[in-house]
From TrEMBL:
Pfam family, one: PFK
Chain sites annotated for binding substrate: T126, I127, D128, R163, M170, G171, R172, E223, R248, H254, L255, Q256, R257
Encoding gene (name): pfkA
UniProt keyword Glycosyltransferase present: no
EC number(s) on file: 2.7.1.11
Protein name per UniProt: ATP-dependent 6-phosphofructokinase
Keyword Kinase set for record: yes
Origin organism lineage: Bacteria, Pseudomonadati, Bacteroidota, Saprospiria, Saprospirales
Binding positions (ADP): R21, A22, V23, V24, R25, R155, G186, A187, E188, R212, K214, L215, F216
Gene Ontology MF terms: 6-phosphofructokinase activity; AMP binding; ATP binding; fructose-6-phosphate binding; identical protein binding; metal ion binding; monosaccharide binding
Cofactor(s) this protein requires: Mg(2+)
Length: 324
């Protein structure tokens, strides 16, 4: 291979820039030319390519977001869109691609690689940490740190007013952000899609606290929880125990997607970006580069998307014990 294209796609995640930098610098080490594609698959379809050299990725390792911009492309979901995208790659003589994104990005890459002869390596860039084949995804650690910082602040006011706060965090269908935020911020309870929690469980936790004369509580709710979002759960609790607790809801939202990447995310992004180029040089294709037990591993896109990443049951058990 001589020319690689790199792009970011789907929701942005802190550390994506560090990954782009690692890709460009490792490629340059191997005398490969790199083109950056703007706005993910949208830019691929539109032929929005720009040569990236070592100097072009200076001064970005510490920046949140993605300098390549990102998009969720509807056009790439159609065979015609993917055909146009492939024609753009050929027009720029691209022999291989590096896709930085999450589930949707790899679903697109997987189909694209079946339809067109272009090797692709993926880098897990999503705050949700919901990809099999890597212990952590790029952006997850920073997002959790942001959520913890928010919950620490909410704790101050919850304590002062003796209030119960339901704090909603992102994660789409996964509860990793919620579980890690809950444990690290000392929340009373965590409601995630993976744990079968009932309203009675939540009410039980609050009553147990109240018995100990502790009227303030923090409950972390994953946005994809089966019990509903934070507002819905708060309303149900209020219905069960009308007026017993002074309840408030805080939805942290897109704050979790921004900010300077943490040390862990810069490390993950640098190692994975480097591994993606090394993988292409070694002839790997249609796999995601991840880190499991501190080792680089390459997982086929299909498995990364469809194999369920099981949440650590010991952590769930421990969260319950530490909150008591
Ligand atoms: O996948 C990352 C994520 O932030 C999810 O946690 C969330 O459900 C979704 O993206 C929000 O998407 P958007 O930025 O398009 O509103």
């Amino acid at each position: 291979i001589k020319r690689i294209a790199v792009f970011t796609s789907g929701g942005d995640a802190p550390g994506m820039n560090a990954a782009i930098r690692a890709v460009v610098r490792t490629a340059s080490f191997h005398d490969l030319h790199v083109y950056g594609i703007s706005r993910g698959y949208e830019g691929m379809i539109d032929g929005d390519f720009k040569r990236l050299e070592r100097k072009d990725v200076a001064n970005i390792i510490h920046r949140g977001g993605t300098v390549l911009k990102t998009a969720r492309s509807k056009r790439f979901m159609t065979p015609e869109g993917r055909k146009t995208a492939y024609e753009s790659l050929k027009a720029f003589d691209i022999d291989a691609c590096i896709a930085i994104g999450g589930n949707g990005t790899f679903t697109g890459a997987n189909i694209f690689a079946q339809e067109h002869p272009i090797p692709i390596i993926g880098l897990p860039g999503t705050i949700d940490n919901d990809l099999f084949g890597t212990d952590y995804t790029i952006g997850f650690d920073t997002a959790v740190n942001t959520a913890i910082d928010a919950v620490d602040k909410i704790r101050d006011t919850a304590d002062s007013h003796d209030r119960v706060f339901f704090v909603e965090v992102m994660g789409r269908h996964a509860g990793y952000i919620a579980l890690h935020t809950g444990i690290a911020s000392g929340a009373e309870s965590v409601v995630t899609p993976e744990i079968d929690t009932t309203i009675e469980d939540v009410v039980g936790v609050l009553q147990r606290s109240a018995k100990r004369k502790k009227l303030f509580s923090l409950i972390i709710v994953a946005e994809g929880s089966r019990l509903g979002n934070a507002n819905e759960i708060a309303a149900k609790v209020n219905e069960r125990l009308p007026g017993v607790f002074d309840i408030r809801v805080a939805v942290i939202g897109h704050l979790q997607r921004g900010g300077a990447p943490s040390h862990l995310d810069r490390m993950l992004a640098s190692r994975m970006g480097h591994a993606a180029v090394e993988g292409l040089v070694e002839g790997k294709a249609d796999v995601m580069a991840g880190i499991v037990n501190d080792e680089i591993v390459y997982t086929p896109f299909y498995d990364a998307i469809f194999t369920e990443k099981t949440i650590n049951n010991q952590l769930i058990k421990m969260a319950g014990i530490l909150a008591m």
